[in-house]
Amino acid sequence: MKAVGPIPPEFVEQQGALTIAGRTAEDWAAEATPLFVYDLAIATARVMRFRTAFPNVALSYAIKANPHPPLVARMAELVDGFDVASAGELRLALRSKPAARIGFAGPGKRDAELAEAITAGATINLESEGEATRALAIADRIGSMPRLAVRVNPDIELRGSGMRMGGRPSPFGVDAARAAALVRRVVAAGADWRGLHIYAGSQALDAQAIIDTQAATISLVARLADEAGAAPPVVNLGGGFGVPYFANDRALDVERVGAALGGALEQRHEMLADTRFAIELGRWLVAECGVYLTRVVDRKESGGEVFVVVDGGLHHQLAASGNFGTVVRRNYPLAVAGRMGEPATGTVSVVGCLCTPLDRLGDRIALPHAEVGDLVAVFMAGAYGATASPTAFLGHPPATELLA
Amino acid sequence: MKAVGPIPPEFVEQQGALTIAGRTAEDWAAEATPLFVYDLAIATARVMRFRTAFPNVALSYAIKANPHPPLVARMAELVDGFDVASAGELRLALRSKPAARIGFAGPGKRDAELAEAITAGATINLESEGEATRALAIADRIGSMPRLAVRVNPDIELRGSGMRMGGRPSPFGVDAARAAALVRRVVAAGADWRGLHIYAGSQALDAQAIIDTQAATISLVARLADEAGAAPPVVNLGGGFGVPYFANDRALDVERVGAALGGALEQRHEMLADTRFAIELGRWLVAECGVYLTRVVDRKESGGEVFVVVDGGLHHQLAASGNFGTVVRRNYPLAVAGRMGEPATGTVSVVGCLCTPLDRLGDRIALPHAEVGDLVAVFMAGAYGATASPTAFLGHPPATELLA
Hints:
The structure is a homodimer of 404-residue chains.
Chain A: H1 9-12, E1 19-20, E2 23-24, H2 25-28, E3 35-38, H3 40-53, E4 58-62, H4 69-78, E5 81-84, H5 87-94, E6 102-104, H6 111-120, E7 123-126, H7 129-142, E8 147-153, E9 163-164, E10 174-175, H8 176-188, E11 192-198, E12 201-202, H9 207-228, E13 234-236, H10 254-266, E14 276-281, H11 283-286, E15 290-302, E16 305-310, E17 334-336, E18 346-351, E19 360-367, E20 375-378, E21 400-403
């Protein structure tokens, strides 16, 4: 038997029928399965928790985590800005945020994407000197003053992060040693220099690691401002706040990170006195608010093992199947939606409907009895689910997405 | 420096500008990148090679490998049947094949899918006793005689296969020990019993392993026919023919497999004298015919490493990025499309345009110089590419697909 990840606190105390935002899972699933339900109240509570812990830091939502349009529209009311990673995401962001509150990062921005961002007035996080050259030329051609920030590949690594993005050769940003020169060039070209974007890693659960990284980032920013001879109007400190997906994962102590950042900002270099600091979060804001509901289609035995076959699978939940960015496959939190809090009656594997051995949502886990027609809930499904999965694989229908 | 996989024989001798089906890559890519080009002549040659090696075996195309509709329509003219894994694939298959030539496998078939297949007259490969019960009840309700085959989880493992699917507890098929009982039940229920479907693994490059598995499968089939007291009209031996993706992979000796299978079939149990044997192939037929072309957007240096950033990425080529079904990330065959056959001028990493460190198509590989605007070709891109990737991830446009 293998462990499952921790069911989020909003659901773990429930008994009997799982409810999401006051409605039962069966009620949500009445029309169609598989489906994602996103409970906006949970995402809102995360934002409020951030606001309390980080009173003087702006909050930006990374749309890539969950671009479901109704969710994005509601997030717009809660956060200060949006981070986008493509022209497609930019268009979606512009439906509910002014361009001045949108930052566009990504190592492979095409000329057409740069032109679209400059025309709209979004901030482009420059990923290289070459991209700066292209952006300035395009702005010149359009006759528009571009909003440009410089993305820095920091000489800092976020320890314990699920994906390290700093402290090593990277396709993201310009190396710290060359960043000030690029800032000077952007300023000299007459662009509206919006500041710096520094992202050292993601999915970190260790508060101290984030605290150390943020402190080092602020020192780096002071050094770069000094080198460049210009104070950044805005510094995007990146995100990196992780969420617990797997057994033994412990939730990040965000309040501790906030207190430490508050202290670090109070003592910041006087050159940064007027700089606005922002944190960019995707996963931490929305992972927990999402539940993926999928119906049991078959229950079968093979070689002494029991398989619960569901109508969903890795075409909607690639990460939960262990096939996206993880080396060792571990189980997400799963439950039988009608039997919350009931003791396990056996060990089963929950497999998706795809005709491939990769499609496994729960590997040899202890669950209460699940029969054909029952619903299985996969928790922590609000981030990097529907759009981070191969939806067209094997020709099954897309999942329904509902906002609660 | 890390190695890349072998460029397919159809392309490896080229010098200068890469051509696909007689047109240059630049010509193909003139309208849009990224794109997939599928050279039907290469897929056709694979079919012909199969026909020569397996003169008395039917050939079925597994649509899941590449469901691009124009390709499927042309494959229909070349192969005997189609294997589908969802109602969506079934509908696509029915556009160009009669239902009697279509087999539907998959562990999570919903009632609506079973009804659709029964109404159309496609063969359902039953994955469990429970699915048999549902299929028979639905057929009864519809008033139609269902075509049913029994999928068997063999007590045989395909050694050295990329994904083992037999010889262990499995969500696919019924265990061999229970298969004859299910056959008897299907026959007794008055269904049109179409035979057996036995799939022991996939992506195997070792001819002897496939030979041994096929011989064991034929023995198993004879045993089951004897136990069931009925000869299967058709036996789908599965596929499992691998293709070389990575350095040191050697192409499968298909002729050797064919000769051995021919011998085994000649000596088969007399009860199987009238049984038609089929092999189901996806990847082996179409992987090699596909080239993914993506344009260089940026070339940058970081920490002493060079990154070539392209406008494609894992949203079209998840497997090439090492994030789908592989434990150790290795490089697919890659080339600079304008400099075929030229010596390498340095070591670079080819990264996609997605704002995630997972998006890497070539990790520290030796390549001729590639500048902004050049095309990079990823070979072996015809199977499990466009539809086996998270196309909506980060809001970039889908890849164009063209049939040559």
